[in-house]
Predict the structure.
Amino acid sequence: MLPNVLQPSATDHVPVLADAVRELIAIEPGETVIDATFGAGGHAALLAADLRGSGKLIAIDRDQTTREYFDRFARRAGVATRFLRGDFAVVLRQLADNGVQADAILFDLGVSSMQIDRPERGFSYAADAPLDMRMDTSAEVTAAGIVNEADERDLATIFKRYGEERYARQIARTIVRRRKEQRFERTGDLVETIRAAIPAPARFGDGHPAKRVFQALRIAVNDELGSLEIALPAAFSILHPGGRLAVISFHSLEDRAVKRFMRDLERGCDCPPDFPVCVCGRKPELRTLSRKPVRPTPAELTVNPRAASARLRVAVKT
Ligand SMILES: C[S@@+](CC[C@H](N)C(=O)[O-])C[C@H]1O[C@@H](n2cnc3c(N)ncnc32)[C@H](O)[C@@H]1O
């Protein structure tokens, strides 16, 4: 177990799987660390503490409001810091193009507690607010845009694929019928429409009836899987040999993308299985540190129930 250097971070936000992240990333003084999803800086504060006064922490986030958390973090970090606002897919590629190299890169995917807890951002089905859900508030696509403009089949596909919503088709049909009379502007209107679209018994089991549609819309609005697909190879290309890549994901689609990415690089050879010898010559480029993803302990879940679906995968570049 590492010494507890859990300092008060920029907020009282509790970083997910913090002990496991620190233990597996194992930061050494003098290293360059990239926190690709800075949020409120909870993980960044721990990783900066592990640099013990020497090294550099580069923070990335696409949400404008995280700048304020970063400024507070930077004043206390005790190491060189830099904030780059933007989509990690774009920023990591720019860093790679500029020859930046790093020893450890962390992704803690999805939305932050701060984003969910600010009703005006529109991420929460629990409060009536503008139907927005953009992490980057200068981005063009909003949840209202998708709900009002996408055709019925695309809506159903989004709800099914990104939310695994059982009643995706019924909900899409009810949305399209309702928006002919009135555009959707508020989260509350959408919640009511989802409730009306699903059979009565399903409104009460398996969490809030709008949970899966809200998750699906959020993923679509922010093109979360598209960014991840681009960011993983960009992050890997930045790492020095021996560099660590850590990814915390919160739903199976993300975790599958991370697992596939790591497995392909770990396997190296991609010759068809019936070839007697390898002709492609590809060698393993990374080593995963645990076959199964690391999950939160029951103790962590009592303190932070939002960590319930978190899964951490860590790999070392060989
Ligand atoms: C779960 S929070 C991270 C919390 C952070 N680890 C902490 O301890 O405070 C995820 C953060 O990543 C950001 N984010 C998500 N996808 C992003 C992307 N494609 N590019 C940049 N930032 C992203 C969100 O805006 C959010 O602030």
User: Anything to note?
Assistant: Residues 105 and 245 are 5 Å apart (CA to CA). The beta strands are 32-35, 56-61, 80-85, 102-108, 239-249, 286-288, 311-317. The chain has 13 helices and seven strands.
